[in-house]
Specification:
Helices cover 23% and strands 17% of the residues. The longest helix has 15 residues. The chain is elongated.
Length: 293
């Protein structure tokens, strides 16, 4: 795991405007990093989410690709569990193409994500608008996802790479058929209203990830996403200088006793070293004799 420090140690050595710091410290994870790690855990779990949209025409059972598009699925699951979709109508219907909903204003221009702002397209190459009942995000351009979604009546591969696919219909095909046959007005709005009476979530992999036991040392006040991921923080940096010099290298070295009763050879060793040093001295060169050149 890549470890990122606060850079205070380097700044203290290279800039006079920073207070010197001699110990490296791991930088705290940002909100985006925590979110990315949480989504990685959901992907690794490899489980789908399952939800149901109960309409005035019947129920549509949905399988959500939480293991492939976790951000988009979490947004949809949140909109379902918070009642955001309750009473919302499908405002656009094009036979042999798709039906679109998820906008509480019913105009096709409203609706927001669980974060209160648009989020990026989560395009997955292995997912395609192929077949009937594909669940995908509606948008007004790249990175403009909110709460609106659509269900396909047929293959629409020309939408691949432009809209984020995050699920499919796995039950209620006859309900989808009945909705497709409804008459529409000039604005492609169903003449007979199609409403989501309530949304129900049956299985949510995010709950399994977020409810995982937290380490004993983990702060209890951390938010839901942070609690599940704080255990993946890298261990603190070890003491010492750089990678190869441990802190123990700077421990005080005891002086060697000289001439003690326990080590009578110390004085003799020192005397021998002095004699060797004296004999090894290089004679000074005489500038008056150049015969050796």
């Amino acid at each position: 795991t890549m470890r990122r420090t606060t850079h205070h140690c380097a700044a203290g050595f290279t800039s006079t405007s920073f207070t010197p710091v001699t110990t490296n410290a791991i930088a705290p994870l940002t909100a985006d990093e925590l979110e990315a790690r949480r989504y990685s855990r959901v992907k690794a779990l490899g489980k789908k989410a399952y939800a149901q949209l109960v309409t005035n025409f019947g129920a549509l059972n949905l399988e959500l690709h939480a293991d492939l598009a976790p951000r988009t699925c979490e947004n949809f699951l949140n909109r379902c569990t918070t009642g955001y979709y309750d009473g919302v109508a499908f405002h656009r219907l094009i036979k042999n193409f798709m039906v679109q909903g998820g906008d509480p204003t019913g105009t096709g221009t409203g609706g927001e994500s669980m974060w209160g702002k648009p989020f990026d397209d989560e395009i997955v190459a292995k997912l395609s608008h192929t077949g009937r009942g594909i669940l995908s995000m509606a948008n007004s351009g790249p990175g403009t996802n909110g709460s609106q979604f659509f269900l396909t009546f047929k293959s629409c591969t020309h939408l691949d790479g432009k809209h984020a696919i995050f699920g499919r219909v796995v039950g209620g095909g006859s309900v989808l058929n009945e909705i497709e046959q409804l008459a529409t007005d000039a604005d492609e709005r169903p003449r007979q209203p199609v409403r989501i009476e309530r949304a129900v979530v049956f299985s949510d992999p995010f709950d399994e990830v977020d409810k995982a036991p937290a380490p004993a040392a983990e702060p209890a006040q951390l938010p839901r996403a942070s609690r599940a991921l704080e255990a993946e923080r890298p261990a603190p940096l070890r003491d010492g200088v750089g990678k190869y010099i441990p802190a123990t290298a700077f421990d005080a070295v005891p002086e060697r006793s000289r001439g003690s009763a326990e080590d009578p050879g110390d004085d003799q060793d020192d005397e021998e070293l002095r004699r060797h040093t004296a004999t090894a001295k290089r004679p000074r060169a005489e500038l008056t004799d150049f015969s050796a050149w």
